[in-house]
Amino acid sequence: MAKWQVPMRKNFDFSRKCDCVHYIYDSEYTYYDGGLNLVPNYEFDATLRYENYYRGRSSVSFMLIDDANNRYSVFLSDFTDMLPHMTGGVIKGKFTFVKKGTNYGIKLVV
């Protein structure tokens, strides 16, 4: 498990599994004043389906959604690793959070 922590919105509800902030803007680097808490990284089981993709300044990410309408950001490289495990746009498995630069997302734990 990574030593860094995952930025979550205040009043984070672990029963929802995900309230992760996908990108932290400069004004939010003061985590506690900026409405964010840091929680230790963890693994969780979920069934997710492809919703859409979006573009950042220099990246492409994919959005997956679970039955409770929680959304999860996935980096292109991690999504490529997930594709062989998807059926009809749905993937079931164990996931964890990843950090690339100042962005956060999830990946499949194999």
Number of alpha- plus pi-helical segments = 1
- Quaternary state reads single chain
Amount of beta strand: over 45%
Number of strands: 7
Structural class: mainly beta
Average pLDDT number: 76
The poorly predicted ranges are 12-19, 23-33
Q: Strand sequence of the main sheet, in spatial order?
A: 5-4-3-6-7
Topology pattern, helix = H, strand = E = EEEEEHEE
Radius of gyration: 14 Å
The total number of structural domains is 1
Largest sheet data: 5 strands, antiparallel
Q: Terminal Cα separation, in Å? A: 13 Å
- Estimated helix fraction: under 10%
- Label the overall shape: globular
Explain the layout of strands and helices.
Layout: E1 5-9, E2 36-40, E3 43-55, E4 60-65, E5 71-75, H1 76-82, E6 90-100, E7 103-108
Antiparallel strand pairs: 1-2, 3-4, 3-6, 4-5, 6-7
Descriptive key words:
110 residues, mainly beta, five-stranded antiparallel beta sheet, 1 helix, globular
How would you characterize this protein structure?
The chain is mostly beta strands and 110 residues long. The longest helix is centred in the last third of the chain and has 7 residues, at 76-82. The chain has one domain. The chain is globular. A hairpin with a 2-residue loop joins strand 6 (90-100) and strand 7. The protein has one helix and seven strands, in the order βββββαββ. 6% of the residues lie in helices and 46% in strands. Strands 5-4-3-6-7 form a five-stranded antiparallel beta sheet, with helices on one face.
